[in-house]
Amino acid sequence: MIKPKVVLFLPSRVDPEIGDLPSADLLPLEMLHIAPTAEAAGWEVVLVDAMTEPRYVERVLAECEGARAFASSCILGYQVWDGAQVAQAVRDRFPDMPIMWGGWFPSAIPELYVNTDICDVVVYGQGELAFVEVLEAWREEGREADLSGIEGLILGRDGHVHWTATRKATHLNDLPEPSFHLIDLDDYYDLQKRSAEFGHRVRNRLPPPHHLAHRPHRGISYFSSFGCPEPCAFCCSAEIAGRRWMALDADVLVDRLAEIHRKNPYDVLRFQDANFGVSKKRMAEFCEGLLSRDLNINWNGTIEIKQICQYDWDTLKLMKRSGNHLMWFGAEAATEQTQELIRKAIKEGQTDEAMSKMHELDIKSGLTYIIGYPGESVESMYETIYEAADMKTRYPSCSVEVFPYRPIPGSEFWAPSVQDNGYPVPETLEDWGRCFDYKFNSWWGVIPEDVQQVWARFTQMAPWFDGIAGGRGPISQLLRKSAGVRLRNRIWKAPIEFQLFDVVRRSLGRVSTYI
Q1: Phi-psi sector, 372: left (phi>0), alpha (psi -120 to 50), beta
Q2: What are the strands of the beta sheet with 69-73, ordered from one edge?
Q3: Residue 386: in which H helix or E strand, if any?
Q4: Cα 265 to Cα 251: distance, rounded to the nearest angstrom
């Protein structure tokens, strides 16, 4: 008996016209997680990842010949537009093909999908079970199947958006293991090697462990939990995931990671969880499991400032021994007043405490801040930039970035950003796909011009202090010291030394490093 086929497609994470590459340790986890329920129901699942398929539009269309359904997913950024173009190509070639979307962006702005040519249904929130239930309905009745009785969907009805009943989340322990057999990890390893060898600009690449900084190494990514319990007002997770957090038991997680490692060894593991460190108990059990298996890998993930402050030293040291080389933190603001505004609730001094612990353990830190929230004071914006400079110079292994606030659909701050602060909402999927690069397409919103100037100076000095800008010569070394002095002492005006360096570089025909 011939199995019905569904084609899964993960759009490109970066615009190829820019010339950058995506970090090739970012696997198509979204698709790997929904595939096994369909396979268990007797479907043939084909996965096309734009990252590893040079001619992915042609491949998708070829695979859709004889297929019964097409599904895609995206987050905010270029994936939105790329996915829409491919879905339209599928619709043009196969007018009767049912098309399903998932991911947080279609969930947050379903009106751009349902009632359009490129979408028949959006799966809202956790999608593993809803996905296969929709497929089974389509298997029986095709594109015209009535999906209104399936929980966790968004449908179009007479030009309007209709939500079906909310689906109760299923614990990850009760869901099947991701279908890693659908991808060839060597394809991703080869991309990682080539991008390193040829010096391509790589987006979203994380710093490697010290001992692998100048050596080829293999990296993978993994989801070990669903959701996040934090109520952050600038994030859509609270709305879409309902502040639920469910995680694989540590022993199950380690077993699965060990099996992947046995089949195709890797050096670095990147957790793509929204919040990996919610449970101290699970963290300790996970680290002990890695040590007992002697996998000899390094790993990184996201964690809250307050969680590191609450962890005891035994747990923190266990993280280090198990191979933890990097953790990412969202400090988001410097003042307690703004912390309360954004529902983050980091107390004064906790960010410094957490960075100090990471520094003492020799675990790298990635620290992000945001300025320009709706209702944030100008004084708070300045204090955030000042604290970011303090963290960067006090703990050199800590990578610090400050971003202008960008409204996210589905978040608590979305409505006031649009209604009160005049955020120009993109009207098309193409506009949405090109609007979310903080560094190249900022929206200043409520940020005054003088704060913008200080932010710009911080952004100019930071790569010099980190040793990213400039070269290895004596002038570059002096400029790095100058950047440190400026950051420590909050000297933002007249960066004449960097401007002169820029003039010299240009006169010599070299690329400017003064940005």
Answers
A1: left
A2: 44-49, 5-10, 69-73, 99-102, 121-123, 153-157, 160-163
A3: helix 378-394
A4: 19
**CA-CA distance, 285 to 419, in Å (whole number)?**
47
CATH number, domain containing residue 385: 3.20.20.70
Residue-number span of the structural domain to which 439 is assigned: 206-447
- Residues 457 and 362 occupy one common structural domain: no
Buried b (16+ CB within 10 A) or exposed e, 38-62: bbeeebebbbbbbbbbeebbebbbe
Query: Domain check: are 79 and 66 in the same one?
Result: yes
pTM: 0.93
Q: Which of 447, 464, 484 is the last residue of a domain?
A: 447
481 & 427 share domain? no
For residues 323 and 443, membership in a common domain is answered with yes
Establish if 260 belongs to a structural domain: yes
Cβ count within 10 A of residue 475: 13
* pLDDT, position 62: 99
Rounded CA-CA distance 407/416 in Å is 9
pLDDT at 515 (0 to 100): 36
Q: What CATH number is attached to the domain comprising 145?
A: 3.40.50.280
127 lies in the same domain as 255: no
Amino acid (one-letter) located at 361? L
CA distance 17 to 115: 30
Instruction: Identify whether the C-beta of residue 431 lies closer than 8 Å to the C-beta of residue 441.
Output: no
Mean pLDDT by 10 residues, the chain (515 residues): 95 86 95 98 98 97 98 95 98 98 94 95 95 98 96 94 95 96 98 79 88 91 95 90 92 98 98 97 98 96 98 98 98 97 95 98 97 96 98 95 93 94 91 71 83 95 85 85 95 88 76 46
